[in-house]
């Protein structure tokens, strides 16, 4: 049973490679209101309405992190509900580790989708490459290929 | 894409007041530099070169950043395979 809370990063990045529906590979998805408002400031991806999620309030009091409001809200919810934080931001990942919150990102979602039979391994590999070439995800080309080789070896 | 590139080259050349050929030369240099960094980091990640060699070729910051990225990607792949 995977309970996960997403900040805007994986929602935007997965949407950019037409793979937002794969977020439903987690068993229960939470999206903080603050994150949803951030998405609304641009445009909420239409594909988000094809997956099930729960909009939740967050209490960031005393969290003591220097992150964007959406990332802070997502970390607060993940910490409060013992959920997995889904973020593609390296600083948010560090903050999650500091708060003993399990944290993963878009690449983890693609691999999980492959493991759970939603994607062929080869399709997951192609989407990992697309994350690198078509989105603002942090990874360099060499690192993506390293991740794909780990997936291939499994 | 080709149209985008042409228009961007024209706009940059106009904004900077230098010939389009010079913009293209700079773009080629930057592109080759990026590809070179990718190659070096790929060789380091694949253990074809050691850390000090990679640092000498592309700088400590890039190597440290790549190490952080590798850790994150390995962690995500492991989770995806086992969750």
From TrEMBL, chain A:
Residue ranges of coiled coil: none
Highest taxon in the source lineage: Archaea
InterPro entries linked: PIN-like_dom_sf, PIN-like_prokaryotic
Name under which the protein is recorded: Nucleic acid-binding protein
Classification of source organism: Archaea, Methanobacteriati, Methanobacteriota, Stenosarchaea group, Halobacteria
From TrEMBL, chain B:
Entry's Gene Ontology BP terms: regulation of DNA-templated transcription
Superkingdom of source: Archaea
Protein name (record): Ribbon-helix-helix protein, CopG family
Source organism per UniProt: Haloferax marisrubri
Lineage: Archaea, Methanobacteriati, Methanobacteriota, Stenosarchaea group, Halobacteria
């Amino acid at each position: 049973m995977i309970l996960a809370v997403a900040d805007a990063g994986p929602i935007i990045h997965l949407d950019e490679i037409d793979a937002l529906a794969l977020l439903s590979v987690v068993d229960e998805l939470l999206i903080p209101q603050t994150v949803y408002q951030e998405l609304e400031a641009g445009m909420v991806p239409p594909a988000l309405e094809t997956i099930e999620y729960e909009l939740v309030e967050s209490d960031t009091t005393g969290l003591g992190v220097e992150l964007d409001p959406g990332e802070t809200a997502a970390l607060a919810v993940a910490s409060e509900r013992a959920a997995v934080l889904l973020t593609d931001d390296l600083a948010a990942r560090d903050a999650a580790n500091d708060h003993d919150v399990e944290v993963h990102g878009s690449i983890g979602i693609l691999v999980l989708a492959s493991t759970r039979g939603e994607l062929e391994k080869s399709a997951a590999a192609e989407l990992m490459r697309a994350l690198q070439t078509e989105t603002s995800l942090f990874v360099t080309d060499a690192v993506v290929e390293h991740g794909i080789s780990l997936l291939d070896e499994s | 894409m080709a149209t985008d590139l042409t228009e961007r080259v024209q706009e940059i050349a106009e904004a900077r007041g230098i010939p389009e050929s010079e913009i293209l030369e700079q773009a080629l240099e930057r592109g080759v530099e990026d590809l070179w960094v990718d190659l070096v980091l790929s060789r380091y990640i694949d253990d074809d070169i050691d850390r000090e060699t990679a640092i000498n070729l592309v700088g400590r910051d890039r190597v440290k950043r790549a190490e952080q990225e590798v850790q994150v990607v390995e962690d995500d792949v492991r989770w995806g395979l086992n969750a």
